[in-house]
């Protein structure tokens, strides 16, 4: 291939960036979106409890006799972080500035082999006086593969705004 086939020009920073999340002006109260689905694996559970230190018997011992349920339960924190990963990668990548507040309720157990997804609803948008930012509140409802709600939480985040110019 000749050297003429390669560009030596600098990156054009005016081009749209792939994968960039929403600025707050792109959102409206009542707007709803859903995430992709993800099946939770034994490897997910082992990696999560290893990195967090959540070495509770119900998570590390298969068939733990003191458990309250059948199957391999996963910590609610794992369910939450997988959904937050989807939100980060798609909705707020590069535009989410801070998590300000979080209220969470576990509604049903999640076990290894369950497939989870979430519906996000924007419930409040309050522009700030600084740098065109806004405080955006969303309700996130998490469901398993049977459409049973397993978790609900409200997240209040600081989001970037569209750059003036």
Automatic annotation (TrEMBL):
SUPFAM superfamilies according to UniProt: Thioesterase/thiol ester dehydrase-isomerase
Top-level division of the source organism's lineage: Bacteria
InterPro entries: HotDog_dom_sf (IPR029069), MCH/BMMD (IPR052342)
Name of the protein: Acyl dehydratase
């Amino acid at each position: 291939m000749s050297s003429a086939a390669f560009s030596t020009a600098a990156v054009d920073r005016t081009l749209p960036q792939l994968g960039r999340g929403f600025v707050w002006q792109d959102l409206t109260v009542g707007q709803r979106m859903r995430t992709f689905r993800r099946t939770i694996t034994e490897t997910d559970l082992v990696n999560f409890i290893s990195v967090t230190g959540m070495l509770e018997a119900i998570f590390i011992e298969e068939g733990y006799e003191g458990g309250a349920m059948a199957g391999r339960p996963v910590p609610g924190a794992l369910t939450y972080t997988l959904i937050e990963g989807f939100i980060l990668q798609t909705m707020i990548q590069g535009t989410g500035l801070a998590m300000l507040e979080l209220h969470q309720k576990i509604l049903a157990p999640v076990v290894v082999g369950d497939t989870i997804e979430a519906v996000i609803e924007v419930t409040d948008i309050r522009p700030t006086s600084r740098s065109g930012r806004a405080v955006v509140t969303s309700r996130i409802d998490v469901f398993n593969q049977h459409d049973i709600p397993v978790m609900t939480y409200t997240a209040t985040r600081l989001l970037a705004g569209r750059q003036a110019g």
